[in-house]
Design brief:
This protein is of the alpha/beta class and 351 residues long. The protein is 41% helix and 19% strand. The chain is built from 12 helices and 15 strands. The protein starts with 8 loop residues before the first strand and ends with a helix. It binds iron/sulfur cluster.
Amino acid sequence: MKRVKSRQIKVGSLKIGGDAPISVQSMTNTKTHDIDKTVSQIKKLELAGCELVRVAVPDKKAVAALSHIKELIKIPLVADIHFNYKLALAALDAGADKIRINPGNIGNESRVREIIEKAREKRIPIRIGVNAGSLHKKYRDSGESLAKSLANSALEYVGFFEDLDFLDFIVSVKASSVTATIEAYELLASKVNCPLHIGVTEAGTLVTGTVKSAIGIGTLLREGIGDTIRVSLTANPIKEVEVGFKILRALELRCVGPEIISCPTCGRCEIDLIALTKKVEKKLSKCKIPLKIAVMGCIVNGPGEAREADLGIAAGKGEGLLFAKGKPIKKVPEGDLVEALLTLVSEFERG
Ligand code: SF4
């Protein structure tokens, strides 16, 4: 799949756009002024692979916390600001690596211009974050479709930024409707060459939000659109990162670590395959080699059904089978299956 070529920006040490890998980001849900809790959550996000983290900056207390948070974390920090341009200016002074604003709710143009000038001076990029829920009245009441309104609103801001010769920006146009989101990004991508932050906003709880994000983000990525992704879930933000990487993995865009495939089970299954698969997932959560590993519910059909897997286990009554590319390697007592698989994976790791 061919990526739509975008220009590259740098957020702290992270490159976004151009030929940089599509990055995965998330947002904390702690009170930003609670430095301990916010840093603790960011550290967990870092461990999960999060490459960029955004924090809400609703007030002066949150701005005051930014520099302390930044000192204690490794990944670039983004300040999310609505309505108050002074907070945006203060966040730029506090050392945020990027700020996210929706120019439509920041106020008049001179305020947006002031933010742009400060960002230029500090060499800090800005995300123009247009959202269905906070569309400017002019676009909300335009009579156009939501997708067109989102794209037109973003294009107006893009024009404004470019007229000021400020190109250090990235754009998002999100809605909770998957179809409107996809269409808005398609319209936008056909007209701009800035990097795009993609995601479906207010996507819902874990299962619903994962499905909507996988379809929305996945469709766009498959079309080559998108340079960084944020899965938006009403769940622990760690899940956003996990789902983000799984979307990239499923599209073979970033293969970090193994992909576990497992059968849905049927009447032939003799063991608790859900528990077994979870155990394998957990044990391999730190593994970095891009293997496809199968966990199958029966010896009779499992190895054949999972012949595209590099390695696999098929469970049986009392004993299971270890296999590679559909071919049996050896039979193993049921209780030793996972350990036998892990030993084989380590042999791969060592080359
Ligand atoms: Fe059923 Fe075996 Fe296929 Fe799993 S591998 S779905 S248990 S036949």
